[in-house]
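BUG: 3D viewer hangs when loading the predicted structure for this chain

Environment: internal workstation, default settings.
Expected: structure renders.
Actual: progress bar stalls at 90%.

Input used:
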Amino acid sequence: MTLKEQLMEDMKNAMRAHETLKLDVVRMIRSEVKNFEIDNGEADDEKVQKIIKTMLKQQKDALLDFEKAARQDLIDETQAKIAIFASYLPTEMSDEELEKVVAEVIATATNKDFGPLMGQVMRQVGNRADGGRVTAMLKKALA
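C-alpha cells produced before the viewer hung:
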C-alpha cells in the first residue's frame, strides 16, 4: 500500500471514529500532496514523505512560538499534530548510525569540502535524518 493510499484509509477511519484532530492533519497532508501534484505531476512515497517532513518542521517551529507565549492549549494540540505527522515518516536514524554514515563518507571522499560531503551524506540517509542533525554531525567530524 502506498503512502497516499494509507492516508486515504486513515482519513476514512478517522471520519468513522470521529477523531477530528487526526482527520484535520490527514486532510492537510492530502491537500499539500494534491497541490504538489498539480504543479509537479504524480508524487511517489518519497515525495509524499518529503512533503510531510516539511509540514512537520513547520509544526515544530510553531510549537516553539507557542512555548514562548506560554499557550498550553496550543502546545498540547501542536504536540498531538506532531505525533500524527511523525507516524507517516520512517524512524529517524540513531546518532550512532548517523556517525557511521558520516565517517564512511569522509573516509571515501577525495574532496573534504563541507558542501559535497553534506550532499553525499544526505543522499545516503534520505528521509531518515534531519538536515540539521547531519550538518552538526558533519561539522563535528570535520573539526
